[in-house]
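Morning - NAP inputs below, output right after.
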Amino acid sequence: MTKPAASRRLHSTSASLERICGSAASNLESSVVKSMASGAAKTALDEACPALTVQRATEASGHSKQIISKSEQENDMKIVIIGGTGLIGSKTVARLSVKGHDVLAASPSGGVNTFTGEGLDKALAGAEVVIDLANSPSFEDKAVLEFFETAGKNLLAAEKVAGVKHHIALSIVGAERLPRSGYLRAKMAQEKLIRESGIPYTIVHSTQFFEFLGGIAQSATVGDTVTVSSAYFQPIASDDVADVMADVALSQPINGVMEIGGPEPFRMNELVARFLQLANDPRKVIGDPHALYFGTELDDRSLVPGAGARIGSTSFEDWFDHAPPRRSGVAA
Ligand SMILES: NC(=O)c1ccc[n+]([C@@H]2O[C@H](COP(=O)([O-])OP(=O)(O)OC[C@H]3O[C@@H](n4cnc5c(N)ncnc54)[C@H](OP(=O)(O)O)[C@@H]3O)[C@@H](O)[C@H]2O)c1
């Protein structure tokens, strides 16, 4: 059976990364170093290449809004990645730099702050694409709403002045179904600003990253006990998310939402327990259907992507074996 176009594109991205990663690592490094702190650039490079082992099987079947790739020739766009030093940001920077684009990793540590507006005009000058991968330093309800609203307004206003042609943001599968969560309300406020901005856009709704399992456990820990929801979720590896973000950056805006998720649904309590056990963490995990997940109860549909979602192929076991997880205190 012929693979869908989106799947073919992911495989070709993977193949070109594979060719480039071995031989041109030093080129990539110098290109990335132009736009971000050198330590972070090395991390991004190191992280991009192991990702090549990931099989990028993706099914886009049934999705009404297929993305259309721009010509492979267009490889010199200026792309600004807000939050380019973060987990997904640094991996996305590496993937787009490999392709020869002029990638700017923007973050407060490098003098670009979407919350205060510092450095934005200069960073966005000449940019065609902006990918917003920033996260709020605080997850407290009021603070996180203020962060995404203020940062969103500042960023979109600066993009209008700069004439940006595609704004891309990473949000969360099910955010629209869970208004009791302060964090998810803030993500919906961010999305509303984007929809109303008049700038062509693509919003990617991802499920939870495997890297966030430690954060989920941490946020639900009292003493030595972790009490988490027993609802289904379908987490994804950050490498698979970054593959999609890079692919979307080189595609036309869909002016809508596309969903991505991991290959397999799990009951949250069962996967958190497995993760802690593999990490030799002695905490006991209890599954409770009424346990709150960042302020809201979940049902078995809440965090699971729909039938048309693009599916990353890295399994939990593959991820755990290849990317030793940060165990706790991860605020992603
Ligand atoms: N965690 C999940 O499971 C999950 C699932 C779906 C979607 N998401 C979304 O994915 C996005 C990226 O998450 P992540 O885990 O990759 O984030 P992360 O690793 O926590 O990185 C956050 C980034 O945001 C930057 N940042 C913070 N404040 C900023 C500001 N005022 N202006 C500009 N940049 C700022 C940080 O810069 P510094 O390094 O300088 O501090 C850092 O680069 C978030 O929007 C999140 O909502 C997360």
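Note: The chain has eleven helices and twelve strands.

O.
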